[in-house]
Amino acid sequence: MAATERDAVIEVYRRLVGNGASPNPRAEHRLAVLTGEGPSALSAAPDYVREVFDELADTFEEKLVSHLSYRVPWDLYHAMQDVRPPSPEGGWRVLDLGSGTGLCGRIFKEYVRGISNGNGSDERVAGATTTTAMTTAAPRGGAMVGCDLSPKMVLKAQESEDYTEVRLQDVHEALRQEEAGSLDLVLSADTFIYVGQLEECFALVSQALTVGGLFAFSIEELMEEGKEEKVDEHYSAEDSTTAVFHQPSVAQEEDDVMVPEFRLESSGRYAQTHAYILRLLAAHKLELRATVEVQIRKESTVPISGRIYVTEKPGI
Questions:
Q1: How many degrees, rounded to 5, is the angle at CA 214 between CA 200 and CA 165?
Q2: DSSP-derived secondary structure letter, 235
Q3: Is the pLDDT of residue 138 over 60?
Q4: Residues 36, 140 within the same domain
Q5: Which structural domain, as residue segments, surrounds residue 98?
Q6: Which residue, 217, 223, 222, 220, is CA-closest to 202?
């Protein structure tokens, strides 16, 4: 887009935002994409997220899974299996941040309900969209709790019956509602693409997790132009607390070029750097157990690069 054309578009969005007639969350978000200005440059406004996902609720799974090759919840599940597979007794308390239509609830329900005589879910197979009935209730103390900003998404997740409770909340409100040390697992599958700045979220996760609790999440990965970041798929606790976690507090400096730790992309979603995530894990005393580079979806047939993480709150 030429500079003069870009300026004209920005001016149109400024007028839409500033006319005062009624809130226009989409215009505000687009203006942040174009200018990098305002609160939406850091994180999507709740009204914007609510409006977008209320519109998508009825066709969300079909479009993502069938047409955009979306598989983040399954990738998270397989990474979790490598770190700590579900047990026969279940009983975990799980919080699913940005639960959407309930894919993670279906895929991870064994952690809550346990595994009994092949009673697992065929949702573990990427692309499956049917739910296998489970006759056993969640063991005492186990719970699958979801949260989402979209009322229509909350209803979809409730209909799945895989959640003990689904709350109409943002990720920070949901985490604050949990007692300190009460959660065995926090999930975030493709949610941080609408939460750019993650400091508060990581602090609340660390507080809410029990000792030995896990935080499994995905990001859309932000890389410096012309460079590729490559890391081993797994780290030991020793690796993750020494050589890896030493990033600058505001931006990553490479070859005298300051790389932002996160950015609102032209797509309207947020991407974070691997270095940013490692810095946050160190700051909030979460240890990296596994990380895997993945394709999180396709956009106009182009694969979008991302990364899966499984982290743990260690004992003192």
A1: 75
A2: -
A3: no
A4: no
A5: 56-312
A6: 217
